[in-house]
Amino acid sequence: MSNVELGLQNRQLEIRRSVKMSESKQCVLISVDGMRPDGLRQAEAPNMDRLIAAGAHTFGASTVMPSVTLPCHMSMFHSVPPERHGVTTNTWTPQVRPVPGIFEAVHKAGQTTASFRNWDQLRDLGRPDSMNVSLFYDYRPDSPASDEKVAAAAIEWLGSNHQGFAFVYLGNTDVVGHDHGWMSGPYIEAIGLADKCIGQVLAVLNDDVFLVVTADHGGHDRSHGTEGPEDMAIPMILGGPGAASGSSLPADTSILDVAPTIAAALGVTAPDEWEGKSLL
User: Fold this and answer.
1) What radius of gyration, in Å, describes the C-alpha atoms of the chain?
2) Of 82, 89, 96, 206, which has the highest C-beta tally within 10 A?
3) Where are the domains of the chain?
4) 26-266, which class in CATH?
5) Is the pLDDT of residue 112 over 80?
6) What is the pLDDT of residue 96?
7) What is the pLDDT of residues 18-52, one digit of tens each?
């Protein structure tokens, strides 16, 4: 093969990759609070199992310290560690040196943003002017129906909106972990209930939707927040255009990689401040 032919073939491959990367008009991020990778493996979770088989995944992604819900989600959305965004507890504090998050990046690109959650402290993951839809379902902490209500609200919106970025937060798994213990029977069942909600959301999505399913942290006993592997290891599942079927994500996959991956899937420019990498 001549150099000219080789160059043409490489250029055609680059074009095909570019086309493939531009296929996603919508991305949906689902965060299952406190879902440990080994908990997912034990749970009856056919929907996440199918996503794993059809897409890319790892059971060894890492979260940030402190391994607590709000700091971890801030890092998930802003692609910087807590020492950079400044949120180190479950109480939000304004950023001294603001870093734009994925909501701001997508909204700046002229695309729609939406958030569905049952823990209101996540309201500040995006600035109000970057949110087209923001729904909080006030739930009883001991009621698994709260995740179902969140999923139902997301389904209603996603059924008629097929572009931009949507965030779906399912908080019941973490509540059950605190009440009954991580890896307890009720905790494993809670992951199964979250999987049912994920399946219901999947049913209304178009085939070209890019999907990320992950967790903010793990847990041990009835707590989390340490540097122990039970708290720090999280699953990461990618589905849709750009996610190679049955493939494994890199060993150094981090929660910081979520926002850059979503930006790449949607063709959105990632802010220079972000420290994570795209997994596509």
Assistant:
1) 18
2) 82
3) 26-266
4) alpha beta
5) yes
6) 82
7) 334 444 799 999 999 999 999 999 999 999 999 99
